[in-house]
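Run folding on both entries below.
>entry_1
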Amino acid sequence: MSANNLPPGSTLFKLPSYEELQAERDLKQSFASLSRDHEDIQQLFKSVASKLETTPKIGEDNELCKEWDQLAKRHRKLYKDSQLNASQCANFLNNYETVLVPLSFGRMTLAEKRFMINKFLEVIPVHQEAARRTSERFQELAKQVEVFPVKVSSYLRQEADKGGFWYGLWSGVEDLCMSIWKVRKSTPRCGGYECSSRLYTGSA
């Protein structure tokens, strides 16, 4: 149907541009990397936990170890949430490709097509809000990971002041701080929150 034959006020269904299709492919590739990112980050969490447990004056029963364990558990929970969000995002894309676009070229009336498209668009804010919340929670976790080395050094300084072992303790915790820094850098990029946010906000 040409634009001249459409009823007044109506428009043709707009097909996705090349850039939009490319962004969609990039998103799907991002989904595939979620599991790999999660495994890498969890391994870093475990590495830091091991260093904490073996660092003099800390040990596995120290509050710092317990706090780090809670951060690791929060990351696992956020990863599960991001997986769910990414799955919903992937289903959304699949429905767009396999349902909405083919039906738009079918024999439905213009009113039926508009109804179908509006129903499809109604769910976007719901998923967008879920992606936003997950993103904020990841950022909060990243900030807590970032300040954790400060807590470790502060604790060790206090212990050193008690017995004069500061230099020996600090040399043993330098690698620990570097490992924590690696986790902090990795945490924000892990997950479906980024993929979902890019889809629902239209950014690439």
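>entry_2
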Amino acid sequence: MSVFGTMLAGVWRWNVRILFLCLFLFLLISGMESTGIQVTREMFEKLESQFLTALGMKERPRPKSPSPIPSYVLDLYARQEGQSIDTTDFFLPKKHTQMANTMRSFFHIQSERDGQYPSNQMRLYFDVRSIPAEEVLRAAEIRLKLLDASECDRDGARDVRRLDVYNVIRAANPSDAGAVLHLLDTRQVDVCGGGDGQWVEVDVTPAVLKWTLEPEANRGLFLHLRTPKGKARATLATETAEQPLLLAFTDDKRHRESGEERKRRLKRGTLRRRKNRRKGEKNPQCQRQYMYVDFSEVGWNDWIIAPPGYNAYYCAGECKYPMPDYLNSTNHAIVQALVNSANPRAVPPPCCVPTSLETAGMLYLDQYDKVVLKNYQDMIVTGCGCR
């Protein structure tokens, strides 16, 4: 087998492993005792460990306290759930997130030093040490809400100010000569155009990349809203629901496939789903079956924010000769089915297995109580076939 073939086989075995674990979870929460199978605590913990490993986690997160969930992250999750996703990447307009499958959010860590700045200046500090060293940072941005200046006219007049965002190289009061700042980006913002305020997004990828490589270099960010003399200053929101937020987009380098392979897989799955819908659900032939995994039933609802569960589906049914075209069986499966029909004792019939799968997004709290949005590849069966 070629190296490429070996890699594909490895990825396929990993995907089947995840679905196998999902099926075991389904059986557990459906009550395996009713089938005569005794579920021990040791069995459950071993299964839980294997499932978490398949999801890229070393252990089960145990949140210490309820954490606020940024509304922007919830909105992003909701937008993704409304789409049919066959890739783990985040495709966000005007953002460099195409190669990222994980997003983490970080709130500003407040300190007594925050009070030393005027209302049009702010120091922000985000602890990003929870980003795994093996993940690759693709993009990072801060989101902050700018409140209207108190003297804004309500007749629609604009008042454009400049917002400068700096990486703090040497910590000190920015007004002192000892402070060393590196300008990251500048935004022109209309401080009178937001009604109850407006959200501003600023790219800070270079700073966060340095922090992940050199944690001791993280001295935070400094924001300065330039205001003309004699004018009241616009202010930066600090309330919990509106406080500055850092979003880090990373790639964990798991299950990456080529664009052409993704297109071929999606096309095959679409054709099979279209033909499967024309078949009656009582058909004993190989087909997709319902399998809902409820996270609350296994005690994971304390760290998984959304979804509360999901329909993973599974494949079941007969693969007997002659097999219908919609199963898109391999030549080997057809030959095996033919031999089985002639002599059932010679070889078993082909197996009904997933042939196309889709990505599922999960919003959860990690072991550091950070809100994480991750897209997991090949979590939902969309097509079945005989192999």
